[in-house]
Amino acid sequence: MPSLRTLHSIILTAGGIATLGLRSIRELFRPPFHFKLFLEQLQRIGNESMGLVLVSGIATGSVMALQFGYGMAKFGATLYVPKVVALTIAREMGPVFTSLLVAGRIGSGIAAEVSSMKVTQQIDAMIALGTSPIQRIVIPRLLASVIALPILTLIADYLSLLGAMLVAQGELGIPGGFYWAKTLDTLRLVDLSTGMTKTAVFAVFIALASCWKGLTTEGGTQGVGQTTTWVVVTSSVFIMLSDFFMTKFFLITVFPKL
Questions:
Q1: Distance between CA 106 and CA 202 in Å, rounded?
Q2: In a domain, 182, yes or no
């Protein structure tokens, strides 16, 4: 059982992140709008993560096709590999794996940048000049994360399916045309939309948790390192736990109606 101190820390963390989220919503539509900062963050979070998504997407699809293929071959069900792989990637593996990898990259980057600004008193100087840290720091990173992460997940899904098709064709003897036909016949818009919903939730938490922890960092350079580690670990735990509950919710409310 968690101790009272642990529960107290969890409650403070959840309250702090939720409060920062509410303040961000309130200030989102108030001028000034830092569109240039938003584009810079979109470049950092989106474009600069493309290589990571490329490698992880192809590797994930290839491994899944190989594992499912040889496992199902024992029961003579190799032809069902495209269906199983497509649903698994669209609903689970694509959103979760992409979010975990991107959380390690952009979460740590945001936390390190914001916490460095905090310990060097740049945040205090910003407030003294009448500039809102929420508008200048939090909102551009939050919007960029919410836009970039679902797009990266879609790209990762496609690359995973491509990698799975290549392995199925080369290792399992499944023709490429048959593989794509079964994949397109299996996937529906709701499969992709539920995956995108998950990634949007993950993106909101990663951005808010990184900014909140960065804005509350203390202890100089040592505090910066601790903040970066905390963000990566906390984001990864949140992604895994929230994925279970969102999957359960979608299985109850969405998929039974299909």
A1: 12
A2: yes
